[in-house]
Design goal:
The protein has 124 residues and is an all-alpha fold. It has five helices and no strands. The protein is globular, with a radius of gyration of 15 Å. The mean pLDDT is 92.
Length: 124
């Protein structure tokens, strides 16, 4: 989100490029990114990183491996399942999106993934 914030705010190209480089360095060997250093790569973090890199620097760097990660982790129904880390303090409400108690983060991951996979040519 830092990279997108810099890009959207019209920050200096040098600053945007530096944030893009820092984000690219965090890509894992499996092609994905993780939400936190101690966690595994997941579709939410990977899709947000790919989307940000696509928009801010229009770079092909990291794209192939990230796209492959998202392709491998997409489910047959076209969604991505990401486990929620949120403390369950609110009553569960079924939204109709798959993945039960993980549906909120999974819906967000699916949305980010579809925007990221649309590539740099899609609207910013």
């Amino acid at each position: 989100m830092r990279l997108l914030g810099l890009y959207w705010s019209g920050a200096a190209e040098r600053e945007v490029a530096g944030a893009a480089w820092a984000l690219a360095k965090l890509q894992r060997a499996d092609g994905g990114w993780a939400q936190l250093p101690g966690l595994s790569s997941d579709a939410y973090a990977t899709a947000k990183a790919l989307y940000a890199l696509n928009r801010a620097v229009r770079s092909e760097a990291n794209t192939e491996a990230a796209r492959a990660f998202l392709a491998r982790t997409r489910l047959a129904d076209g969604t991505w399942h990401v486990r929620s880390r949120a403390y369950k303090f609110q009553p569960y409400t079924e939204s109709g999106f798959p993945h039960g108690g993980d549906q909120w983060i999974s819906a967000a991951a699916t949305s980010w993934a579809l925007m990221a996979l649309a590539g740099p040519a899609s609207a910013p």
